[in-house]
Amino acid sequence: MQLTAAALASIRSGVSGSVAFEAVEPGLRPGVQALGFQVLRWLGRAEALRRQLAKRTPPPAADALLCTALALAWDAARSPYEPFTLVDQAVEAAKRNPGTRAQASFINACLRRFLRERDELVAATEREPVAQWNHPRWWIERLKRDHPREWQRVLSADNMQAPMTLRVNVRKTDVASFQRALEAARLQAVPVGPSGLQLARARPVQQLPGFPEGEFSVQDAAAQLAAPLLLDGLRPQGPSPMRVLDACAAPGGKTAHLLEFAAPGTIEVTALEVDAARSRRIDETLARLSMSAKVVVADASRPAQWWDGVPFDAILLDAPCTASGIVRRHPDVRWLRRESDIEQLALQQAMLLAGLWPLVRQGGRLLYCTCSVFREEGSHQIEAFLAHNTDARLLPSPGHLLPQSGVNARGVPDNPLGDHDGFFYALLEKL
Fold first, then answer.
1. Alpha helices in 74-193 (DSSP H)
2. What does the pLDDT read at residue 396?
3. For residues 80 and 72, is the Cβ–Cβ distance under 8 A?
4. CA distances to 52, 150, 166, 355, 404 from 44, in Å
5. 337 and 214 share a domain?
6. In a domain? residue 152
7. Cis amide leading into 251 (omega within 30)
8. Which range of residues forms the domain containing residue 32?
9. Which of 163, 238, 327, 384 shows the smallest number of beta carbons within 10 Å?
């Protein structure tokens, strides 16, 4: 409880969830992260309950501990422990921590009152949209504007646990064979997308057959669409392999998929990444899969610093964005983002599009994608680009793919991609 509350306090101060949970010692990290994710998914409700229980906001450490306990205990059906046990753990954690010891009696009084009046207190918070949907108010309002028919479904899906989806490396095996290998290891999975398998239950990758041999990668089903969209039907102009650029490549999942999807020897991939530390993850990803690409550390929006002047046949631009489509996997994002971030990121996306478009050969393609559900980072961005670039044509593309969660009565996903994250795709051809 104490470690989970400490992680929440760090996230509230502006630290990303990845960094906050990395600070926990490895042996305890999985459990702390699992509890932390649950807290972050129900933080809106917890904060509303805390306001019912206390007129003044407690000091940050005490407030984090109180909200952690409320987030875990407010719904008995979802609670990892009995509510009384959670309350006892929270009070004991407050007493042990010098930073919260002075507030231990206050925390105890709040939580004991919560146990006595839980139904009434929860009912009182139902009128608050942030408590009901567990997203910031601005996020909820923007979703209402951007997706008036589906905003509630998106918010509900965001609060579900994301599935573990694998992308089968078709250079080394095929979906049916790998599914049989999983079944032999008593692991159930269903096919999703062109080369994916969605596990019935998540497992550490080291426990799955074929991981050291590079037979699969972990990748959401919606993210697996990038390589086929960009390369399917694209032909080289001459005998040389096609030149393909992955413009924002770390950690290398899409770079690897481009190489897996194309026939051997038909493409040469340049993987570009502005962050030198993150670029090393591209090398690690490719090494495990026994593949190679030209990895370059540079700013994609400044081609003069790295481009050799030879046009690319295809460019994949997985642009920096709010990550509003992947909050199931990163529930801290919703609380860290500010509405002003959207405009700033949209400007960066427009700069990347403007900088990379001249690098595409005539008849070549650029695939623009983001893991965002906001239209300013998706359809509005592409509408503005097309209005200013008459040499660009929009090819058939998925557009906005909203987060999907659900299976039918037979346990089979409700759609061909299964449960998937939110993404936007626009495939552009140069005339």
1. 83-96, 104-125, 129-133, 137-146, 151-158, 175-184
2. 95
3. yes
4. 13, 20, 32, 40, 22
5. no
6. no
7. yes
8. 2-133
9. 238
- Report which secondary-structure segment, H or E, holds 270: strand 267-273
Domain boundary among 114, 133, 152: 133
Q: Are residues 187 and 250 in the same domain?
A: no
The answer to whether position 139 is within a domain reads no
Q: How far apart are CA 30 and CA 9, in angstroms?
A: 18
Angle between helices 29-41 and 60-73 (to 10 degrees): 80
Domain-located, residue 157: no
Read off the pLDDT of residues 333-360 as tens digits, 9 standing for 90 and up: 999 999 999 999 999 999 999 999 999 9
Q: Is 110 a catalytic residue?
A: no
Question: Whose CA is closest to 146, among 376, 382, 346, 424?
Answer: 376
Rg (CA), the chain: 24
Give the 3-state secondary structure of residue 241. coil
Residues 6+ apart with CB under 8 A from 38: 71, 72, 78, 80
**Are 242 and 391 found together in one domain?**
yes
Side-chain-side CA neighbours of residue 387 (13 Å): 7
**For the chain, what is the domain count?**
3
Q: What is the CATH number of the domain that holds 123?
A: 1.10.940.10
DSSP 84: H
Could you report how far apart the first and last alpha carbons of the chain are, in Å?
58
pLDDT for residue 62: 95
Choice among 110, 248, 321, 371 that is catalytic: 371
Please report the pLDDT score of residue 18 as a whole number.
Answer: 93
Q: What is the pLDDT of residue 252?
A: 94
The answer to whether residues 174 and 240 belong to one domain is: no
Residues 180 and 104 both lie in one domain: no
Q: The domain that contains 365 carries what CATH number?
A: 3.40.50.150
Q: Locate tokens 């990395």: which residue? A: 22
Low pLDDT (below 50) residues in the chain: 407-412
One domain, residues 273 and 403: yes
The string of pLDDT tens digits covering residues 185-219 is 999 999 998 899 999 999 999 999 999 999 999 99
Q: Is residue 148 part of a domain?
A: no
For 112-129, b/e burial (b = at least 16 CB within 10 A) is: eebeeebeebbeebeeeb
Q: Are residues 32 and 49 in the same domain?
A: yes
The phi and psi torsions of 356 (rounded to 5 degrees) equal -95, -25
| pTM of the full structure | 0.93
